[in-house]
Amino acid sequence: MRRNFSSSRLVRLLSDWAPVEPQASRQDFAERLSQWLDLSDAITLHAAHQSIKPAVAGKRPGARAVQTQSLEEEFHRVRAARVQAIAASGALPVRDHRDRSLLPMPPGASAPDAGFAPYQQRYLDQQRQMALRIEALRGHVRHAVAAATPRLAQLAAMDAVLEQMLGAREQKMMGTVPVVLERRFEQLRSAHQLAQDAAQQPDDPASWRQPGGWQHRFGKELEAALLAELEVRLQPVTGLMEALRNEGEKTR
Questions:
Q1: For residues 61 and 220, what is the distance between their CA atoms, to the nearest angstrom?
Q2: Shortest CA distance to 46 belongs to which of 34, 58, 56, 35?
Q3: Nearest 10 degrees: CA dihedral of 112, 117, 123, 127?
Q4: CA pair distance 201, 205, nearest whole angstrom
Q5: 46: Cβ contacts below 8 Å, ≥ 6 apart
Q6: Is residue 51 within 8 Å of residue 220, measured between CB atoms?
Q7: What is the pLDDT, as a whole number, of residue 21?
Q8: Under 8 Å between Cβ of 210 and 114
Q9: Residues 11, 4: contact at Cβ < 8 Å?
Q10: Cα distance between residue 133 and residue 234, in whole Å
Q11: Minimal CA–CA distance to 37: which of 46, 28, 26?
Q12: How far apart are CA 167 and CA 124, in angstroms?
């Protein structure tokens, strides 16, 4: 039985590619969160919590008029654009452009095996684009949430503080994903070389990016990692939108 069944898909993927023996944590959420926050952060968080105005009874005039449809459309538009960009990242197929079975190769990977560097650049470019687009989306959704009801205004204010406090740490942690992917790249390449040596057959670099080839497999895994990371980065926005949706249902 998997012990990380409740983890995000990104964590599960990275655990499969770079397995480590999991250690059961006896700490609750507050204790684990404290490892991310130092004394200065704790003071800032406490001050922000104290400064948030208490929610008053009743609803802000016009709260029922808050429309979530446009936000839903924007959310799905941003997400779909990033999914499309992830799928399209990489320039041209290795061979004939009419052969759709070949995985697009990352820009700069003109040689059959140019190493991990082109894939790393591809991943970092996608990470930067995700960070920019989702940051703007989160700010827009937070503004709408803050204008809905006093209670949601509290949530929006806390979200702004948490984004400021934890954003840099999140980016640092996301920066470790390419490190795991590089290990996976080398693992697949070594396994391929060992298989070729055992079979005592000449290698065919042209087949590496075809279905069944080791680079084709790695490219698909890299794409899966990007899609999983996208979902992790979208979680705060998803939470804000769910809160707005639930509040709207209560006021009907």
A1: 50
A2: 34
A3: -160
A4: 13
A5: none
A6: no
A7: 55
A8: no
A9: yes
A10: 10
A11: 46
A12: 17
Nearest-angstrom CA–CA distance, 66 and 60: 11
Domain boundaries, the chain: 64-90+112-192+207-252
Tokens of 8: 């995000």
The token pair at 79 is 């997400």
Q: Is-contact 149 32, C-beta < 8 A?
A: no
Given the structure tokens 């609803």, which residue do they identify?
59
Looking at residue 4, its pLDDT comes to 47
Give CA–CA dist 67/244, Å, rounded.
9
Residue type, position 11, single letter: V
What is the distance between the alpha carbons of residues 165 and 247, in angstroms, rounded to a whole number? 26
In the chain, which residues have pLDDT < 70? 1-6, 19-30, 32-36, 39, 52-67, 90-113, 250-252
In the DSSP assignment, the letter for residue 231 is: H
**DSSP H helical ranges for the chain:** 9-17, 29-34, 39-51, 69-88, 117-146, 150-174, 177-199, 214-250
Q: Which two tokens stand for residue 141?
A: 């959704």
How many residues are listed for the chain in this entry? 252
- pLDDT, position 40: 75
Report CA-CA distances (Å) from 247 to 140, 154, 170, 240. 18, 13, 28, 11
